């Protein structure tokens, strides 16, 4: 029983991170029908910005918790700005072009950011200082849950709930949903579609930056190719939940984390990924548009 | 012509080494160095040359061997097979008793049959299995074979620490799986108990699912054969999950970042590796490194400088103990030593000329991130 609860929390922690990153893929896809392959790299950029903030303003000690909050603010601001810049430079000029051109541009942007991180920071593993946050461990029914895990799970759920409320219960959220259904019709209704797209490139990367910085704080090591690893998992989470569907990305992320934990735990660690992805294929065979997907996925 | 050069070198040496001129009457015992003095491995090659010259000088200051001075002949093989063969012929013509080097297996291999035919002892850090294939009596490998790490690791875990429930963890790389398989096989041959073999995806960071499962099996040691960035996370996540087992890591876990990534959880981790020259725990090794530092104002470039120095020391010991420079007698002595106290740990040579007894040590990571050698004990 202790092992089961432990695996559940293991899965929820990474699942929360996957979900935060997956939201960026799904929102951009929902509005633009574009897979933003540079998204994973933007998220890890957040981790590096946070790390630089923490190390240059002296983390650790009693300043720890406050420093971490400031680091999150800095990471979110920088990555959101990078997201807007990315849209302006790499995607807006291609909006009327062939869909394949935008995909190539996205892949190029991914490499640009990844290698940029390598040049600015380091090709080696960068390490977060220890003692930033309390190291309290909670013991629940034989499972050990750390403070950081609780924080990651709680913050990701709060952020996801906030995003859900924003998109479904505010005027601007309605505009985002309208633009997702039909950009031309939305424009005719007086919605500034460019602003909607820009906002999607603010919200997605901002949430991703939080996810990326969680990775850094939880595991305490970041390296420049990590964006690809996490981006791939989050992208799969978005597909699993139904790409373009916001609650779908949340559910997809959490499920992927849980699948992975239980596959490694109860089946076989050497087949962990194979089992996880076989399950995904199974789900997509039954529901080709993902768990919550309504629209039939279009080819990119 | 060759003789002329030889005598002029001897004259130069006589000038360079004070007091040597007085004892120049009996002919010197010649020891060859075949090493990459230039080229990609120049640093290592020069290290071997410097180590051998240092040992020769020390011996000569004690009055040499058998009343004769030691003279060192150096040939630069550039780390290349073709040049190595030329060096071998040149050193044989120079009349050396033994040759120290070369650094690379390839260069040692090209020279090996030439030394064997001339009955000249060859001791090199080369570890290629091809060096053993022909069964030459003149070959003495001074570095441990590639399988030594697994042997040492299993011995340490099963016989020294007496772990009863060992979990082996590896990533999917050929290096780590090869090492893990070898360690597992060696544990079994030592009648140890491997309770589980688990795999992680290198770089995936999230190892808690695998470790949670291991925890339920209640291991007393977790051996990890992969790289430090994953190993440090495994150690940290073991602490987080409350896994009490001792973490034992393979050589790729040795990196300053291991301590940084694992943070406070790093303390108590055991890492198995060949120590750097400065970390060797043996008094003779400390004295050698200090003398090397004093003479050349730099540290030996790698542990292979010291394994080659061990080759030289063994040859000198053989000459002294057999009171002879007869190749057959020296080879017989070297093949039948009960124990040789090397700078890189104690070892002997088997009939194939393979080093038995590895320079590996077990380090324990301390709370401040530094390393402390816990096995074998110094002395």
TrEMBL record, chain A:
It is a multi-pass membrane protein. CDD domains: TM_PBP1_LivH_like. GO terms for cellular component: plasma membrane. GO terms for molecular function: L-isoleucine transmembrane transporter activity; L-leucine transmembrane transporter activity; L-phenylalanine transmembrane transporter activity; L-valine transmembrane transporter activity. Keywords: Amino-acid transport, Cell inner membrane, Cell membrane, Membrane, Transmembrane, Transmembrane helix, Transport. PANTHER family: BRANCHED-CHAIN AMINO ACID TRANSPORT SYSTEM PERMEASE PROTEIN LIVH, HIGH-AFFINITY BRANCHED-CHAIN AMINO ACID TRANSPORT SYSTEM PERMEASE PROTEIN LIVH. Belongs to the binding-protein-dependent transport system permease family. LivHM subfamily. This is Innermembrane translocator. It comes from Acidocella aminolytica 101 = DSM 11237.
TrEMBL record, chain B:
Keywords: Amino-acid transport, Signal, Transport. Residues 1-24 form the signal peptide. It holds the Pfam family Peripla_BP_6. SUPFAM superfamilies: Periplasmic binding protein-like I. The keyword Transport applies. GO terms for biological process: amino acid transport. The keyword Transport applies. CDD domains: PBP1_ABC_LIVBP-like. Residues 28-369 form the Leucine-binding protein domain. InterPro entries: Leu-bd (IPR028081), Leu_Ile_Val-bd (IPR000709), Peripla_BP_I (IPR028082). Belongs to the leucine-binding protein family. This is ABC transporter branched chain amino-acid permease. It comes from Acidocella aminolytica 101 = DSM 11237.
């Amino acid at each position: 029983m202790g092992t089961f609860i432990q695996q559940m929390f293991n899965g929820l922690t990474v699942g929360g991170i996957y979900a935060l990153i997956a939201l960026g893929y799904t929102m951009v896809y929902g509005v633009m029908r574009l897979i933003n392959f540079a998204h994973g790299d933007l998220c890890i950029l957040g981790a590096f910005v946070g790390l630089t903030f923490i190390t240059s303003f002296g983390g650790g000690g009693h300043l720890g918790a406050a420093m971490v909050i400031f680091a999150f603010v800095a990471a979110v601001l920088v990555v959101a700005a990078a997201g807007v810049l990315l849209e302006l430079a790499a995607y807006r000029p291609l909006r009327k072009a062939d869909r394949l051109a935008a995909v190539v541009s996205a892949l190029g942007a991914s490499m640009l950011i990844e290698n940029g991180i390598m040049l600015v920071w380091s090709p080696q593993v960068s390490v977060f200082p220890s003692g930033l946050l309390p190291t309290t461990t909670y013991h629940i029914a034989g499972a050990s849950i750390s403070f950081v895990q609780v924080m990651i799970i709680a913050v990701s759920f709060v952020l996801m709930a906030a995003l859900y409320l924003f998109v479904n219960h505010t005027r601007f959220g309605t505009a985002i949903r309208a633009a997702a259904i039909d950009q031309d019709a939305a424009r005719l209704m007086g919605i500034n579609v460019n602003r909607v797209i820009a906002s999607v490139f603010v919200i997605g990367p901002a949430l991703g930056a939080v996810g990326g910085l969680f990775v850094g704080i939880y595991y305490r090591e970041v390296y420049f190719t990590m964006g690809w690893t996490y981006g791939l998992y989050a992208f799969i989470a978005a597909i699993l939940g139904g790409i373009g569907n916001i609650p779908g990305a949340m559910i997809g992320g959490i499920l992927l984390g849980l699948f992975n934990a239980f596959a490694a735990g109860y089946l076989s660690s050497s087949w962990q990924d194979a089992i996880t992805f076989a399950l995904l294929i199974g789900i997509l065979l039954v529901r080709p548009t993902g768990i919550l997907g309504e629209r039939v996925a279009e080819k990119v | 012509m060759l003789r002329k050069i030889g005598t002029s070198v001897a004259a130069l040496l006589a000038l360079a080494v004070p007091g040597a001129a007085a004892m120049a009457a009996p002919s010197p015992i010649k020891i060859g160095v075949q090493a990459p003095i230039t080229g990609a491995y120049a640093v290592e090659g020069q290290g071997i040359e410097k180590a051998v010259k240092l040992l020769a000088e020390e011996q000569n200051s004690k009055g040499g061997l058998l009343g004769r001075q030691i003279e060192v002949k150096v040939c630069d093989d550039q780390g290349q097979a073709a040049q190595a063969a030329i060096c071998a012929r040149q050193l044989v013509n120079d009349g050396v008793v033994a040759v120290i080097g070369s650094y690379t297996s390839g260069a040692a291999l090209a020279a090996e049959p030439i030394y064997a035919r001339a009955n000249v002892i060859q001791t090199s850090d080369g570890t290629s299995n091809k060096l053993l294939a022909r069964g030459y009596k003149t070959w003495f490998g001074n570095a441990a074979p590639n399988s030594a790490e697994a042997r040492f690791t299993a011995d340490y875990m099963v016989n020294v620490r007496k772990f009863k429930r060992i979990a082996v963890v590896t990533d999917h790389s050929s290096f780590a799986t090869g090492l893990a398989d070898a360690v597992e096989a060696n544990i079994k041959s030592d009648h140890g108990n491997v309770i589980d073999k688990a795999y992680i995806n290198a770089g995936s960071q999230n190892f808690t699912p695998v470790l949670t499962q291991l925890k339920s099996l209640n291991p007393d040691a977790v051996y990890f054969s992969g790289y430090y960035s994953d190993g440090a996370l495994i150690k940290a996540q073991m602490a987080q999950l409350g896994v009490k087992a001792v973490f034992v890591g393979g050589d790729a876990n040795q990196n300053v970042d291991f301590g940084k990534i694992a943070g406070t959880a790093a303390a108590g981790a055991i890492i198995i590796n060949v120590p750097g020259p400065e970390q060797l725990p043996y008094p003779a090794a400390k004295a050698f490194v200090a003398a090397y530092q004093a003479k050349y104002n730099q540290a030996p470039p790698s542990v292979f400088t010291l394994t080659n120095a061990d080759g030289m020391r063994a040859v000198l010991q053989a000459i002294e103990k057999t009171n002879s420079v007869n190749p057959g007698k020296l080879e017989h002595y070297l093949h039948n030593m009960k124990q040789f106290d090397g700078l890189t740990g104690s070892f002997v040579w088997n009939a194939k000329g393979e080093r038995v007894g590895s320079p590996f040590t077990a380090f324990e990571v301390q709370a401040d991130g530094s390393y402390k050698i816990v096995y074998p004990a110094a002395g």
